[in-house]
Amino acid sequence: MTHEQAPIDTTRMSIPKKIAARAAELREQLHRHAYQYYVLDDPLIPDAEYDRMMRELQALEAEYPALRTPDSPTQRVGGESLDAFEQVIHRVPMLSLDNALDEEEFRHFDRRVRERLKYDGPIDYTAEPKLDGLAINLRYQDGVLVQAGTRGDGVHGENVTANVRTIAAIPLRLFGEGYPDLLEVRGEIFMPRQGFEALNERVLKAGGKPFANPRNAAAGSLRQLDPKITARRPLSFYAYGWGEMSVERLADGYRDSLRHLASWGVPVSSEMRAVPGVDACLAYFADIGARRGALPYEIDGVVVKVDSLDEQERLGFVSRAPRWAIAWKFPPREELTIVEAVEFQVGRTGAVTPVARLKPVEVGGVTVSNATLHNIGEVWRKDVRAGDTVFVRRAGDVIPEIVRVVLDRRPPDARPVELPRYCPVCGSDVILPEGEAIARCTGGLYCPAQRKEALIHFASRKAMDIDGLGEKLVDQLVEKGLARNPADLYRLTLEQLIGLERMGGKSARNLLAALERSKSTTLERFLYALGIREVGEATAKGLARRFGSLEAIEQADEEALQQTPDIGPIVAAHIAGFFRQQHNREIIQRLTDEAGIHWPDVEKPDADNLPLVGKTFVITGKLSQPRDHFKTLLEAAGAKVSGSVSKKTDYLLAGEDAGSKLVKAQTLGVTIISEAELPALLGDR
Ligand code: 9MJ
Is 544's C-beta closer than 6 angstroms to any atom of ligand 1? Predict the structure, then answer.
């Protein structure tokens, strides 16, 4: 028989007095600082100090588990998982609120209150924002949170204590003195906007389905059987009432009662106000409505309550709703309407964007007759069709959007939306390269929708570098009909320019001189200036070096274009689509033949002429641009770019924080160059 030593049962071990006192002190401090941080938003100590105290308490509790009381701040992290929620019974039923949907209904509420109280003067009301979350009952016994229950049907709720303990704004133990032995605090658990957005971003990244609104997110988070999940959700809480208590009242009025709760560390809305009479209520409603978007949490109206508890008692209840309170709701931000048509608009960059024309409907107090659909991919994903009944939403001041289609109400003849083949503005081909979400007009130089953008880009420094031709001037030239495309710029006369705003004789002559100078350029600058989608400087350079002439590029098919370093199917589709347009070609011809834009012959793309033929490069470390950019430049100069350093490597292009590749290159004696040394190797000016 073996004599195993029994494990020490620390739960029964007596706890040294000093340890118990230290744990109590840490608990007290952590409660205070959590309140300062989460409720008052006014931390008194650095986060690191808080974390240090928390770890010290956790260590003490690990050694002496009997110290781990249910109100310990360490319990916020979430305990054991549940199989199901138990039931809680609310001995004082949890109320719901009657609604007022407009001013008239609110005035009706006020009239009834005054009639019942037989009082004709202004009633002393309290107003507060109506939070859109989940109602909760928090039961404190001797100042310690012992139970948290949802409203449920008002009498039977769900016991969500383990989850509620993880919410930092909810005190696990009340502060100060004077609280009743038994106190049930009631209020709303909600998810602040910022936390909601961050949560949805996390959910999306993990490939999940985002929550539709903060209310759903709060409810979903609280009804998790695993409190560790709730602990990671950014929930908060405001109190707006009480339930069972071991005293009759906390004060004579509602505001004073809430002030007592606040003095014990319970969060109360800082927007609570005394509003005597209807006019003050109207002003409060308007004020909060105007600030709604700036509040850190979503609200869906205001709650107005008769302040005097005596008057509340005289008014009483109808079923579960008190006659002394009303929820005055903002106009809904989501409505149903019918899609009359789906049309397409062309943006300044040639993006072809679908727009839904709607049967006009009032949403959140504004008449909505158009909704953006962002891109054709979204139309197909949401499967929006002309004739469909849809939910439209206005969030803040943003453009209304279609949330979803009510499929049950789809007319049998509704056809899926097709992408137009031709630009609705200029008639050029519309392309949607495979894998892209945004369709584009290919008539970049010619399309009126893209005129200003095309001219500004054409004149910019890295393109044709036409000094003095900025955005304001382009606006005027286009609006006066003096320039519809880049070729028109070279027909401008001194008289025309002098007639423009803020254009004296000197600036006009300077501009004409700059235009004249710009005619002498390089093929890569000219290619870049055309503003072909996805063709930046590096790609333009690659094209110029690979093909040697504009004619060769114009004639290249997509397959040939893809032989250029860094040009894949999408870029190739944009280039070929651009040169297929007769209108674009005509303008290019005018630029070269009529205006006389010219460039030196590009050195034959003969391999022997490229400066880095036969050289192998490896790129490592942090550079000013993505690695692909440098790969393109190097390949265009004839170099090979490899992924790993070996004896065959000629150069290592090393940026900041280069690691093992740099070490290997050093041991092998490979030439190491920085980004700044690259232009010289590429043979650039
Ligand atoms: C909300 N949801 O913000 C009440 N509420 O009062 C406020 N709800 C309420 N009060 C009695 N501020 C029952 C519900």
Answer: no
CB 376 within 8 A of CB 346: no
Walk across the sheet containing 651-654 and list its strands: 640-642, 616-620, 651-654, 671-673
User: What are the structure tokens assigned to 61, written together?
Assistant: 């509790």
The SS3 call for residue 442 is coil
Residue nearest to atom 4 of ligand 1 (CA): 240
The terminus-to-terminus CA distance of the chain in angstroms comes to: 91
Q: What is the rounded CA–CA span in Å between residue 543 and residue 552? A: 10
3-state secondary structure of 151: coil
Mutate to test the pocket of ligand 1, among 303, 307, 312 (most ligand atoms within 8 A of CB): 303
Q: Does the predicted model carry a pTM greater than 0.70?
A: no
Among the listed residues 272, 284, 268, 411, the one whose alpha carbon sits nearest the alpha carbon of residue 338:
411
> Are the C-beta atoms of 322 and 124 separated by less than 8 Å?
no
Report yes or no: 97 and 306 within 8 Å, Cβ to Cβ: no
Q: Which residues does 264 contact at the CB level (< 8 Å), separation at least 6?
A: 143, 171, 174, 175, 176, 178, 179
- Quote the strand ranges of 270-407, DSSP E: 273-276, 299-306, 317-318, 321-322, 325-329, 334-346, 351-363, 366-372, 389-393, 401-405
The tens digit of pLDDT for each residue in 239-297 reads 999 999 999 999 999 999 999 999 999 999 999 999 999 999 999 999 999 998 899 99
The ligand 1 atom nearest the CA atom of 94: 13
- Cβ 241 under 6 angstroms from ligand 1: yes
Q: Domains (ranges, CATH) in the chain?
A: 10-75 (1.10.287.610), 99-329 (3.30.470.30), 334-409 (2.40.50.140), 430-594 (1.10.150.20), 607-682 (3.40.50.10190)
Please give the Cα distance from 423 to 343 (Å, whole number).
Answer: 12
Q: Per-residue pLDDT tens for 5-48?
A: 444 444 456 889 999 999 999 999 988 888 877 777 677 777 77
Can you give the pLDDT at residue 395? 65
pLDDT at 3 over 90: no
The protein residue whose alpha carbon is closest to atom 11 in ligand 1 is: 95
Mutating to test ligand 1, I would choose from 136, 185, 240 the residue with most ligand atoms within 8 A of its C-beta, which is: 240
Question: What is the distance of C-alpha 653 from the center of its chain?
Answer: 37
Q: Is the CB of 325 under 6 A from ligand 1?
A: yes
d(CA 463, CA 459): 6
Q: For residues 22 and 590, give the distance between their C-alpha atoms in angstroms, rounded to a whole number.
A: 87
Q: Which two tokens stand for residue 293?
A: 């978007």
CB 352 within 8 A of CB 440: yes
Which region, left, alpha or beta, applies to residue 387 given φ > 0 means left and ψ of -120 to 50 means alpha? left
| Helical segments of 295-375, H only | 309-315
Q: What is the pLDDT of residues 45-75, one digit of tens each?
A: 777 778 788 889 989 998 998 888 878 888 7
